[in-house]
User: What shape does this take?
Amino acid sequence: MTKTPAQNKGFTLIELAVVLVILGLLLGGLLMPLAARMDILQYNETRQKLALIREAINGFVLANGRFPCPASPATPSSAAGSGTENYGLAAGVVPWVTLGTPELDAWGGRFSYAVTASMQDEISANTVTPPASCTTIPASASFALCSAGSLTVNSTAGGSVALQVPAVVISHGKNGLGAYRDDGSQLSSAGASAGELQNTDGGSPFVYGETVQNGYDDFVEWISLNVLFNRMVSAGRLP
Assistant: This one.
């Protein structure tokens, strides 16, 4: 049977436009869940790295009787000495080479690290200055059971989350505002929330948020002295 001209015509522009819109909606529906799943994977990866760093710091203290010093944040990964302790530095980035931990979070930012100065010095420096109520100076650690950290962690709402903390580790999150990269450059902190800005200056207090909200997306991990003291006593490092 011979087809009529009407039967032989192709898609009209309107029909093609409708098809493209439908395809766009379908692709958008697929891509959005994929992006959400990627975010979850990156968040979980960063949390796992932070947990690994926390345990590595605890292990370092048990082995050496002191906290590791931070690494220089502005030293490129390709430079000699990158990722190793910088003695006398109280705030910088995690010394990933010294600890054998990851250098970068899931978004390519280095982990910031701040530590109480009196807890990172050599045991031989004998700078332990416990209060009068505690007179035992340990022979195998740079701090005593009655020592306290100098760092504070607050919530995004302003209340205290942890006091007298010896050390804090920070991932600057997905937006990376204020983070150092592996080439030693620092991302701008322009547009950072108030809490994120406090986490970039290396000084206490630091700000912890349980959820990503109001522009804040940092991950903050800190060392618990009570947990560490228990391990050090068991290992014979204290008292």
User: Anything to note?
Assistant: The helical segments are 5-8, 13-64, 96-99, 194-198, 225-234.
